[in-house]
Specification:
Aspartate Aminotransferase, domain 1, Aspartate Aminotransferase, domain 2, 40% helix, alpha/beta, binds ligand F0G, 14 strands
Length: 460
């Protein structure tokens, strides 16, 4: 008999207590933090769905690996173990460890991107966009049109729009496009996967114009699992085989091992371009460390090496994707609008649909995130006009982001089904009184990545 329930494929070996701060504590915390959930102390949060990045539980094998960490400054055993695993999965020749994903982005874009360039991507994540813009280049999002329609149900809503990629190349000219990037899964577009066929199509365009093609590979294993489930011809392939095929189509990749590396810190830049690798290593020495540790301890390299193997386990991926879908079904079943179909690492609540009375320049998704925290101590993150809108130079309303979402990101191997049932209850309760929610005004903001430190006041 095959039973229906997909269980967590692990036992819990070590636990961390959760404080249960009451409503008074939460109100005071919101006031102190200026209604920015990044300003909360983690102990003021009950269920922390701010991010799936670096927040997961490591396995006993990873902890055992950490004991093997070789802390030699140059040429450590742990580096060669790490390099071996990355090369085996990606097939890419040059492997440069970094302390996290954005450090890989920073060195890649510093050596490959110049002022006036345009970098196409399906959707840039916030740090990726900021690192492109920091070079004086334009970060252009070319996801298919359905990719920004929360209600559109498509198996691969993260795909790049090949027509728009071609027209961008024609408009801008190949000389101003240093590389094409595709993010798997498409985090800012709802954690939606990209099909193998779409990766092949992007490769074909890049070949035609002789452009390098890079993956933002943070959630490559979750993307591989969606390909197995949804794309013709992949049902009988292993996640590892699918991941290898994905990487075989690109010239390089940036990776945050804080996601599908199942580690708390780490990342890498991998590339087949020797000249980019040489320049990136030189820069790495300046900012991150020697090229065999790149800002990481030897034991971190071990944790990532083991994590990259574990993340491709079918039992893990089946549970991972199913547990995200479970939260999505709980809230959508109660009529709460979400990005459909649910993504791999997170459920995205559609605040524009839930709070039509709050205009984008009064930050409906921020208002929803604040209320989820106030009501139940659940911390999600706004992915809307606070994160991606642009302030008006003349002091008028911000230009709106394409979507107003609250992302509930699920840390890997960390919360149980009852934690998730609790989150469902909180979301459904807040959604039931959506009309009573009010917008926010932004009272303070920095020049870039404003969502991390902006302060707000609630409107009357
Ligand atoms: N690319 C994508 C698609 C990401 O989701 C992230 C991080 C990065 C790059 C940067 O990696 O954090 O290791 O420097 N995303 C986290 C999140 C922060 O919450 O989605 P990093």
């Amino acid at each position: 008999m095959e039973y229906r329930t997909i269980i967590e494929p692990f036992r819990i070996h070590s636990v961390q207590a959760i404080d249960l701060p009451d409503m008074t504590t939460r109100e005071a915390a919101l006031d102190r933090a200026g209604y920015n959930l990044f300003g909360l102390h983690a102990d003021e949060v009950i269920i922390d769905l701010l991010t799936d990045s670096g927040t997961g539980a490591m396995s006993s094998e990873q902890w055992a690996g950490m004991m093997r960490g070789d802390e030699s400054y140059a040429g450590s055993r742990s580096f060669f173990r790490f390099e071996g695993v990355v090369k085996d999965i990606t097939g890419l020749e040059e492997v440069i460890p970094t302390h996290q994903g954005r450090a890989a982005e920073k060195i890649l874009f510093s050596v490959a991107v110049k002022d006036g360039d345009v970098v196409p991507n399906n959707t840039h994540f916030d740090t990726t966009r900021a690192n492109v813009e920091f070079q004086g280049a334009e970060a252009r999002d070319l996801v298919i049109p359905e990719g920004t329609d929360p209600a559109a149900i498509l198996p691969f809503k993260g795909n790049m729009d090949i027509g728009r990629l071609r027209s961008t190349i024609k408009e801008v000219g190949v000389d101003r496009i240093p590389l094409v990037m595709v993010t798997v899964t498409n985090n800012s577009g709802g954690g939606q996967p990209v099909s193998m066929q779409n990766l092949r199509d992007v490769r074909a365009v890049c070949d035609e114009y002789e452009l390098p093609f890079y993956l933002d590979a943070c959630r490559f294993a979750e993307n591989a699992w969606f390909i197995k489930l949804r794309e013709d011809g992949y049902a009988d392939r292993t996640p590892r085989e699918i991941a290898k095929e994905m990487f075989s189509l690109v010239d390089g990749a940036t990776m945050s091992a804080k996601k599908d590396g199942l580690a708390n810190i780490g990342g890498f830049l991998a590339t087949n371009d020797e000249s980019i690798a040489m320049n990136a290593r030189n820069l790495l020495i300046l900012t991150e460390g020697f090229p065999t540790y790149g800002g990481l301890a030897g034991y971190d390299l071990e944790a990532v090496a083991v994590g990259l193997e574990e993340v491709l386990d079918e039992n893990y991926l089946r549970y991972r994707i199913r547990s995200t879908a479970y939260l999505a079904e709980t809230v959508a079943g109660a009529g709460v609008p979400i990005v459909q179909p649910p993504g791999g690492h997170a459920v995205y609540l559609d605040a524009a649909a839930l709070l039509p009375h709050i205009p984008s320049h009064e930050y409906p998704a921020q208002a929803l995130a604040v209320e989820l925290y106030r009501a139940g101590g659940v911390r999600g993150v706004e992915i809307g006009t606070v994160m991606f809108g642009k302030p008006d130079p003349d002091g008028g309303p911000d230009s709106p982001a394409p979507m107003e979402l609250v992302r509930l990101a699920i840390p890997r191997r960390t919360y149980t089904q009852s934690h998730i049932d609790y989150v469902g209850e909180v979301v459904i309760d807040v959604a039931a009184r959506a009309e009573s929610l009010r917008g926010l005004t932004m009272t303070q903001q920095p020049p870039w990545l404003r969502h991390f430190t902006a302060r707000f006041a609630e409107m009357g």
